[in-house]
Specification:
Radius of gyration: 34 Å
Number of strands: 0
Length: about 110
């Protein structure tokens, strides 16, 4: 039993030294990992910014389409003599005019 204990002590010391070294390395590199993660969370990549702009443009285009359909419907009612629809169609037309400059125009390739 005494010999077994003598063999176990050096092996345990070697294993413990490796464990301590790995823990020390983890503690030393932790601030770098935390800083890198914080920078990644704080900054927006170009692809993320492009996706966000594209999503906003698509939402404005969808809203413009809804407004144009409302305007056409209200204009038909106005032509039928509905004065309330005439007033609403003017308000919708004004909103369309405000929204149009915010939507990019697509150009056809030559």
């Amino acid at each position: 039993m005494n010999r077994f204990a003598l063999l176990l002590v050096p092996c345990g010391a070697l294993l413990l030294a490796g464990c301590l070294a790995q823990t020390a390395l983890d503690i030393i590199t932790l601030p770098v990992k935390v800083a890198t993660t914080a920078v990644d969370l704080a900054t927006t990549s170009q692809a993320e910014a492009d996706q966000k702009r594209g999503r906003a443009v698509r939402q404005r285009e969808q809203h413009l389409g809804n407004l144009q359909r409302d305007y056409e419907r209200l204009t038909k009612k106005c032509a039928s003599g509905d004065t309330n629809a005439c007033e609403k169609s003017h308000a919708v037309y004004s909103e369309i005019q405000l929204l149009l400059p915010t939507i990019p125009v697509e150009t056809k390739p030559r």
